[in-house]
């Protein structure tokens, strides 16, 4: 399904359904397709919002986890959302945590899946290799338990991004910022109910990362999904949606 992309000032976003806002933050190579099943399911219960994060549009000094967190803060303020359920995958989770540590007042719950912020196996110092399609394809496949999830459409999307020199510079800046910006003990300051949904076969942020988030975030619960990699909402949407729905029902 194609969604209408709405605009308000410098913000572009999708907003579907009614109810308490469920704001979705995508990762470094994230796209709307990552959240397709999640949007379709939760628009029946929530106002599902996906802001387009300006990964390649910020000036180089603001191309950081902190810069993106400021953007999310301005977006949520501009839309005047209250009682927000903030969900982030990978880098999006990291951005969500940095935002909530500074501005907890509008947030009702936090949902992290494959989040960076403690530890992640990055794409390696050589990544991204421009112009090497096979390399990009193999790297994309590592995101999933089932390599077939790295469809030609998805690989083409990443390949196009990594073929642009300026975008590559921004990707590297964001990846380095994420590695430098280790949240460690700050996580104990998160007070809202937090749901951690992790792939048991995640090789980018392995299961021990989910366990460490659970240990450090006071009011948190951790769910593992078998035969699942770094993007549970894409790879096992049925199970992911059930865990999330149960969590949201319990904290009403």
From TrEMBL:
CC terms in the record's Gene Ontology section: membrane
Any one Gene Ontology molecular-function term assigned to this protein's record: monoacylglycerol lipase activity
Gene3D superfamilies: alpha/beta hydrolase
Positions in coiled-coil regions: none
Superkingdom per UniProt: Bacteria
InterPro entries per record: AB_hydrolase_1, AB_hydrolase_fold, AB_hydrolase_sf
Domain AB hydrolase-1: 21-235
Pfam families membership: Abhydrolase_1
GO BP term, pick one: acylglycerol catabolic process
Protein name, entry field: Pimeloyl-ACP methyl ester carboxylesterase
Organism: Chitinophaga skermanii
Organism taxonomic ancestry: Bacteria, Pseudomonadati, Bacteroidota, Chitinophagia, Chitinophagales
């Amino acid at each position: 399904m194609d969604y209408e992309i709405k605009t308000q000032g410098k913000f572009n976003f999708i907003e579907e359904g009614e109810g308490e806002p469920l704001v979705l933050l995508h990762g470094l190579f994230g796209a709307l397709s990552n959240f397709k099943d999640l949007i379709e399911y939760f628009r029946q219960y929530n106002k599902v919002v996906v802001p387009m994060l300006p990964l390649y549009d910020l000036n180089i000094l603001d191309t950081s986890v902190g810069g993106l967190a400021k953007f999310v803060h301005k977006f949520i303020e501009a839309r005047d959302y209250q009682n927000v359920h903030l969900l982030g995958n990978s880098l999006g989770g990291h951005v969500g945590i940095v935002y909530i540590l500074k501005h907890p007042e509008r947030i009702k719950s936090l949902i992290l899946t494959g989040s960076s912020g403690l530890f992640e196996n990055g794409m390696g110092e050589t990544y991204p290799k421009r112009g090497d399609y096979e390399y990009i394809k193999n790297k994309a496949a590592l995101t999933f338990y089932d390599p077939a999830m790295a469809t030609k459409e998805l690989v083409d999307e990443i390949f196009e991004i990594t073929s642009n020199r300026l975008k590559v510079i921004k990707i590297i800046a964001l990846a380095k910022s994420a590695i430098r910006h280790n949240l460690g003990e700050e996580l104990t300051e998160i007070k809202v109910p937090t749901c951690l949904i992790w792939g048991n076969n995640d090789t980018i942020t392995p299961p021990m990362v989910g366990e460490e988030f659970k240990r450090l975030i006071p009011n948190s619960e951790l769910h593992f999904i078998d035969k699942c990699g770094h993007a549970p909402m894409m790879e096992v949407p049925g199970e992911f949606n059930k865990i999330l729905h149960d969590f949201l029902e319990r904290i009403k």
